[in-house]
């Protein structure tokens, strides 16, 4: 689903969003405006499989990152619930 020719850009947009969302500099907002994440994900078919795969990969990244337990827990819950919110079809 991600743009092959601009994977680095996609990574940067997600990173900037997370930095802003957790209290860091608002670079994401300055460059992209209001997140409107559900609307921005509408062009992609996000069913249960895609949602679960995305969460699985993010959880793997969290494992590699070795954050303190409470940070890890908070991010896991945030990713899980936001990813469910992004679903726009059943399967
Ligand atoms: C549920 C599974 C998800 C899938 C399959 C998915 C897929 C995608 C794809 C294909 C893009 C376009 C890449 C780009 O050019 O930027 C994108 C953008 C983005 N996604 Fe997701 N995403 C998922 C969940 C999430 C979640 C849970 C978050 C936030 C925690 C998130 C945050 C973002 C952001 C910030 C962008 C860039 C939006 C923009 O400014 O254009 N995504 N996502």
Walk me through the structure.
The protein is mostly helical and 91 residues long. Helix 4 packs antiparallel against helix 5. The model has no long low-confidence stretch (mean pLDDT 98). The site of protoporphyrin IX containing FE has 20 residues, from helix 1, helix 3, helix 4 and helix 5.
What's the layout of helices and strands?
Layout: H1 7-21, H2 27-32, H3 37-41, H4 48-65, H5 69-85
Helix pairs in contact: 4-5
This protein binds protoporphyrin IX containing FE.
Protoporphyrin IX containing FE (HEM) is lined by residues 1-3, 10, 13-14, 17, 32, 37, 40-41, 44, 46, 50-51, 54, 79, 82-83, 86.
Summarize the entry for a quick read.
The protein is mainly α and 91 residues long. It has five helices and no strands. The mean pLDDT is 98.
- Helix-strand pattern: HHHHH
What would you call the shape? globular
- β content, as a range? under 5%
Largest sheet: none
Q: Helical region count?
A: 5
Low-confidence stretches: none
Class by helix and strand content?
mainly alpha
How many angstroms does the end-to-end distance come to? Answer: 16 Å
DSSP E strands, number: 0
Please estimate the helix content: 55-70%
| Global mean pLDDT | 98
Query: Which molecules other than protein and nucleic acid are bound?
Result: protoporphyrin IX containing FE
| Cα gyration radius (Å) | 14 Å
């Amino acid at each position: 689903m991600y743009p092959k020719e601009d994977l680095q850009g996609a990574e940067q947009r997600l990173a900037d969003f997370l930095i802003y969302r957790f209290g860091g500099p608002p670079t994401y907002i300055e460059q992209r405006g209001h997140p409107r994440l559900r609307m921005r994900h509408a062009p992609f078919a996000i069913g249960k499989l895609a949602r679960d795969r995305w969460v699985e990969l993010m959880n793997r990244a969290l494992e590699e990152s070795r954050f303190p337990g409470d940070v890890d827990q908070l991010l896991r819950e945030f990713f899980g619930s936001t990813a469910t919110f992004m679903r726009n079809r059943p399967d």
